[in-house]
Amino acid sequence: MIEDFIHRPVPLIIAEQAALCQVEKIINQCGKTLADYNLPVIELDFNLDNLENFNQNVQQSIDEANRMRPLLNVNQLNVCNAILAALNEQPSVENQHSRLFFMDGPAGSGKTFTYNYLIAETSSRGIKSATAAWTGIAATLLTNGSTLHGLFKLPVPILDNSTCNVTPNSIHGHFLSQVSLFLLDETSMIPKNALNAIDRLLKDVCNNNFPFGGKVILFGGDFRQILPVVKRGQPAEVVEACIKCSLHWQWVHKFKLTENMRVHDGEREFSNWLLRLGSGTVFVKEEDPFKGCIEIPHQCLIRENDSIVEKIFGDAEQDDYAKRVILTPTNVDSLSINEEVLQRLPGEVKTYLSADQVETDNLNERNNFPV
After folding, report:
1. pLDDT of residue 33
2. With contact defined as beta carbons under 8 Å apart, do 101 and 255 qualify?
3. CB atoms within 10 A of CB 232
4. Amino acid 53: pLDDT
5. Hey, is 230 helix, strand or coil?
6. Which helix (H) or strand (E) holds 52?
């Protein structure tokens, strides 16, 4: 009966579930269950309507891929062609080290657009992909994105011998084994211990000793930005924690996105200055009292007694507040700035407290909610 569903453009696991649902529907009329015939229990939250929804989603993916493909620039297209070519090859001894890719690009260079195009393109071809980022905020920009902790069930903290809370026979383990392409954003923040744990997990659930179980993986990020957080770590310790120091990095194929897709013409000078700053090529003063310092562009400065909140939000209408943001590296400053911004808004302030601990003695349950 499964052959009735396999011919449709759906993954094997969905075809299996659809066939089991059809069998269950028939034998239930006779008062029997799947277990009475030693058939596997339907493990997924699945019904036959899901199959029609899946076919509709495939058509949506085809339409989305067709819309996005002409918008790719040359560098983005090179990345996508390399990924799709790798997906067309079965993992083998010859190509086991040719399935890891890194897309290097500063903010605004089109990394997220490239991810989302690949998601649509692979979905239109019936290829399963999974997307994740190290932070939750970055994950919200990706189609069906999650955090790496959520996708791979990474433990907290992550040590050099840590393992993920997934077994090969579990539903989640089966899901990971069915994924052909992993898209992992904010790579600069991923510690190499996390990468090694993911490698061990995918080898385990896929029963395949090739790197990452033979899966195609596209990393993306900008190493000018935040590196892994090492508590009270010295610069050398932070660098050592980066995935660039992982043994896997030598096999990664690198691509660069250089065209900033978000910068307007009037902002290109500042954008280029930021790139030079991140690359360490901005002019550094050589004489005291400012030896080793850089000069900040005049337009980025405010006077000592001026309010940065007034500078950023002063002329904004209430509806435009969500389009403006102040970045700060410390919690103390963020609380102070948020309080000042809230005071400018009409209405009553309400405080909602979040949960910061899991109230359970079950270790497996705790691992599902890393906090």
Report:
1. 84
2. yes
3. 5
4. 47
5. coil
6. helix 48-68
pTM of the entire predicted model: 0.70
Give buried/exposed letters for 195-226 (b at 16+ CB in 10 A, else e).
bbbbbbbbbbbbebebbbbbbbbbbbbbbbee
Instruction: Give the C-alpha separation, 371 to 368, whole Å.
Output: 10
Over residues 93-119, the mean pLDDT reads: 89
Say if CB 129 and CB 183 are below 8 A apart: yes
301-338 burial string, b = 16+ CB within 10 Å, else e? Answer: eeeeeeeebeebbeeeeeeeeeeeeeeeeeeeeeeebe
Instruction: Of 182, 174, 171, 170, give the one whose Cα is nearest residue 119.
Output: 182
| Of the ranges 36-45, 121-130, 307-316, the best mean pLDDT one | 121-130
Total residues belonging to the chain? 371
Q: Which residues, including other chains, have CB under 8 Å from residue 41's CB and lie 6 or more apart?
A: 34, 35
Greater pLDDT, 369 or 6:
369
| Confidence grade of residue 332 (pLDDT, cut at 50, 70, 90) | very high
Higher pLDDT, 83 or 92: 83
Peptide bond into 11 cis (omega under 30): no
What is the spatial distance between Cα 230 and Cα 239, in angstroms, rounded to a whole number? Answer: 10
> What SS3 state is found at 139?
helix
